[in-house]
Amino acid sequence: MDLRSSDNPFRFTPANPESQTNGNHSFFLRKGQKKKRKIKQRAPRGSPLPARMAPASTSPPAKARVMTAPAKSPLLGGIGDLDTAVSLRLHTLFLPVPRLLLKALEVAGDGRIWLPIPISLLLISTTTSSKVSPLLVGLVVGLVLDILFVGVTKLIVRRPRPAYNAADMYVAVAADHWSFPSGHSSRAFLVAAFLAAGGFPRVALFFWAAATSASRVLLGRHYVLDVVTGACLGVFEAWLSSLLLRSMCTRISFLVC
């Protein structure tokens, strides 16, 4: 059989050189176009990636960051912002002060110490004597007033404590979560003013009250405005308890006034 015959089904027909050239040309053309598209998709160094190529952000959304920020008291307004800046500056400036000393002043002005002591002495005096010292009665009255005034004011103003306040503070009641006014400052100046009026050394008393109040800012427990307001409130409570004591002396016979 003649392999070159047209009737032969197994006859080999050589490829058309022209068509083969065109096929090769189109193949390399398509390959070049794909390469160009890949080059276009590559971003130059230093340029931001497209949104679909950029890695997913791990930072919380802006709304979550705003929600976790400490709230401000609307009653203090712009003075609260200034007070916050000054308090933070003082807290940072006096960081070298030994924290153990500041904590000792904190404990010395704690209400869990000052309220039980005069109440215990008052109960002991009533069982051992027919007369009761007006100093103890007035001090107990003043401390009870301090709890009421400070607690109600804190719940009304609802100023958060400083964000840099350490987590080593004991919170006795819900009102202690708020900052304005300072209960330590009001209590210290109440005790100092009342005992100074009773004949105790006033210089030492007011120095202790001022040091206790300053420790509240340096520890990061309170702002300056909290401390100043608390000191004024403590002096007012001492004056008010003295008025109540005078009124009680005229009506209660067992008080030695």
From TrEMBL:
Any coiled-coil regions, as ranges: none
Disordered, as annotated region: 1-64
Polar residues bias: start-end ranges: 16-25
Residue ranges occupied by any Phosphatidic acid phosphatase type 2/haloperoxidase domain in the UniProt entry: 136-242
Key words of the record: Membrane, Transmembrane, Transmembrane helix
Ranges that cross the membrane: 135-157, 188-211, 223-245
Name assigned to this protein: Phosphatidic acid phosphatase type 2/haloperoxidase domain-containing protein
Residue ranges with Basic residues bias: 31-43
Signal sequence bounds: none
The UniProt record lists the keyword NADP: no
InterPro entries: PAP2/HPO, PAP2/HPO_sf
Organism of derivation: Oryza meyeriana var. granulata
Annotated Pfam families: PAP2 (PF01569)
Entry's Gene Ontology molecular function annotations: sphingosine-1-phosphate phosphatase activity
Matches recorded under CDD domains: PAP2_containing_2_like
